[in-house]
Structures are given as C-alpha cells and as structure tokens.
Amino acid sequence: MLLLMSAIQVKNLPEPMHAELRRRAAEEGMTLAEYILDVLRRDLAVPGQRQWLERLASRDPVQTTGALDALDAARAEREAELGDARRR
Fold first, then answer.
1. The whole model's pTM is what?
2. Residue 61 contacts residue 54 (beta carbons within 8 Å)
C-alpha cells in the first residue's frame, strides 16, 4: 500500500517558539520535522475538547452523595485552623 504524504507550512511562527521546538527536537534526538510529527500524532491520539465534552454529556451523572459534604467540612475545618493560626 502506497502512503501519500502531505506537507504543512507554518507561517508567522515566532522565533522563540521555533528555537524551543528545535531545542526540544535535539533533546529527543530527532529532527525538527520528526519532532513536530510526533507532537501532532500525540495530539491526535486523544479526543479533541468538543469530542470529550460530547462524550461526557452523554454519560449518566455521577452521584457524589456525601463526598461533597465531606470535602466542604474538611475545607471549613482547614480554614478555621488557618484563621486560628493567623490570630496568634
């Protein structure tokens, strides 16, 4: 099977960003092109924000009965401890 490759050109890339990409590529022992392809592959391996939110919205709500109350109580206790320490 023949795999066709496309080219992408990034215009108006700030020099500090270009320098950092080159530095990171060298640190990984890769060419700049290899490094950028790796970054793109990793990004595309996870769902985008919209996909993630749609998937999340389709799930049943999680019941947090008791957990939020316990967290609120722990925070209030910690705030009281901090308030006592500040008054000393």
1. 0.61
2. no
DSSP, residue by residue, 17-65: HHHHHHHHHHHTT--HHHHHHHHHHHHHTS--HHHHHHHHHTSPPPP-T
Boundaries of every domain in the chain: 13-59
Q: How many CA atoms lie within 13 A of 22 on its CB side?
A: 7
Provide the residue-wise pLDDT of the chain in tens; the chain has 88 residues. Answer: 788 889 999 999 999 999 999 999 999 999 999 999 999 999 999 989 999 999 999 998 877 778 888 888 999 999 988 887 777 6
The number of beta carbons lying within 10 Å of the beta carbon of residue 81 is 10
